Amino acid sequence: MKFVILTGMSGAGKSTALKMMEDIGFYCVDNLPIPLLEKFVELSDLQQNAELQKVAVGIDIRSGQALEELRSVLDRIKANGGAYDILFLDAEDSVLVKRYKETRRSHPLAGSERVDKGIAKERERLAFLKERASYIIDTSQLLTRELKAEIEKIFVQNQDYKNLFITILSFGFKYGIPADSDLVFDVRFLPNPYYVEGLRAKTGNDREIQDYVLQFKEAHEFLDKLEDMINFLIPNYIAEGKNQLVISIGCTGGKHRSVTLANELYKRMADKKEYGLKIEHRDIGKDALRGK
């Protein structure tokens, strides 16, 4: 039997994830009282029907004071030969605050205080579960379909999962450095196709811009050195427990050079199995929107 405890921060997408797990064949139970968890595992093990061969149980801060009992319950399950995985959904505090404001809901631990105070209390109370987690997915930058892909990667495709999701992000410095960047690289040292006749209106997704930018040996040297550094950093980030990495590449307007090099870096990293990967071009259309 495959038994998964789905937990994590309020607002990180647990309800959505539980529905996704149901869609891939898990028998799902949300907010099961913790005193019943041990008995539920025993009963599930005894059942031979296919319906209970894959079980997911949602447990989170809604359990209240009973959450303190979960440590010993998990220890007993393990001591009795029971096997389980913990899937922990997380997100950055700023993202969680924004999600609460958008839904106009109050945090279950905030009381009369601000949302961020409730989030801090919740992090403290769930820390032991995150430490025990088999899988950690940071949903800060994930679309719903991307979260689904990560869950399927773990529980359908049975791929090795290293709990690190990387976003390669192109941007324009004139619109500001992305606040969630972990690594920022400036590629304004390369010649700008903006000033080349016939290229201004095109983007780094167009072949003409790619050919222009990549004709310079400095572009390839930059990519080689960047790829080498990232390959060095990733296993160290994984060992340190980091689960979200945003690599930002910027040029003046975020339309030509940064897009081209972000795309090239994505191609070089796309076949790696140690992490999830996606690419975004934050400012690629802003000049067009402003009529420039």
What does this molecule look like?
Helices cover about 40% and strands about 20% of the residues. By secondary structure, it is α/β, with parallel strands linked by helices. It has two domains: about 1-155, P-loop containing nucleotide triphosphate hydrolases (Rossmann fold, 3-Layer(aba) Sandwich); about 165-290, no CATH class. A five-stranded parallel β-sheet has the order 2-3-1-4-5, with helices on both faces. A four-stranded parallel β-sheet has the order 7-8-6-9, covered by helices on one side. The relative contact order is 0.13.
- The radius of gyration is 23 Å
- Overall mean pLDDT: 88
Largest sheet: 5 strands, parallel
Secondary structure: number of strands: 9
Which ranges are low-confidence, i.e. pLDDT below 50, for 5 or more consecutive residues?
none
Coarse structural class: alpha/beta
Q: What is the CATH homologous superfamily assignment of the largest domain?
A: P-loop containing nucleotide triphosphate hydrolases
CATH class of the largest domain: Alpha Beta
Helical coverage, percent range: 40-55%
Order of helices and strands: EHEHEHEHHEHEEHHEHEH
> What would CATH call the architecture of the largest domain?
3-Layer(aba) Sandwich
- N-to-C span: 59 Å
| Annotation field: number of helices | 10
Envelope shape: elongated
CATH topology of the largest domain: Rossmann fold
Number of domains: 2
The proportion of residues in beta strands is 15-25%
For the biggest β-sheet, the strand order reads 2-3-1-4-5
Keywords: ATP-binding, GTP-binding, Nucleotide-binding
Protein name: RNase adapter RapZ
Domain RapZ-like N-terminal: 1-158
Binding site for GTP: 60-63
